[in-house]
Amino acid sequence: MTINLIWDNYLGLGPHKENVYSLDEQTIDFAVPSNISNGNYKIFQQNPTDKLYYVIYVGRVADRTTDDGLKDRLKEHIGEWPGSLYFDYEAKNTSLQAYHQECVDYHNWQPIYNSVHPAKLPNRNDPCPICGQ
Question: Rounded to an integer, what is the distance from CA 128 to the centroid of its chain?
Answer without folding.
Answer: 17
